[in-house]
Please model this.
Amino acid sequence: MNIRIETIPQAQQRYPTTGDWWWEGDTLEMRVSAISDWRYSMLVALHELVEALLCKAHGVTAEAVDAWDTGIGKDLDDPGDDTRALSPRASHRIRHRASTGP
Model:
């Protein structure tokens, strides 16, 4: 497994988000918005890393997460926190919350 993390300008994200992840074969690709204090960008990267690995371990695909985040969840402040993200179509809420902390 390879993991590649890049910080990019917010405007270059695939959709309105601060952190994004997907798999290219066995490489986990992550894009995190550049925030003025680099430490915040790295906190977002850590969150995305934990969420992505928990999703992989539990069979939740990046495509399912993207479909939720760009579909029903697109107008929410944090789509992964919404209770509807527990549905089989978007069952990443548990992984998202676990990667956020208590």
User: Anything to note?
Assistant: Residues 2-100 form one domain. The radius of gyration is 13 Å. The helical segments are 38-57, 62-70, 93-100. The chain has three helices and three strands.
